[in-house]
Amino acid sequence: MIQHFSFKPLFENTQLPGWAISFFYLRERYVAEYLKDGEIQWIGPIPPNEDDVKKMIHELMLYHVYD
């Protein structure tokens, strides 16, 4: 389960899509960029079970950003 999920716009102009995200997963901190097409670019290590983590991130972004 993802914990302490946070996001902020990549650009000052909030009309441009793209977000910096960070979260904890299995007691490790991960950082990535969530791009406008839903692609996730990891900054640093990639979490184990990457596909499952991506699904959780997409759900969180839908809830917080696109709601």
Helix % is 10-25%
- Overall, the morphology is globular
- Bin the strand percentage: 35-45%
Mean pLDDT: 90
Secondary-structure element order, as H and E?
EEEEH
Radius of gyration: 11 Å
In the predicted model, the low-confidence regions spanning at least 5 consecutive residues are none
List the keywords.
single chain; 67 residues; alpha+beta
What can you see in these coordinates?
- The chain is of the alpha+beta class and 67 residues long.
- It has one helix at residues 50-64; strands spanning 2-9, 19-25, 28-34, 40-43.
- 12% of the residues are buried.
Short description:
The protein is of the alpha+beta class and 67 residues long. Helices cover 22% and strands 39% of the residues.
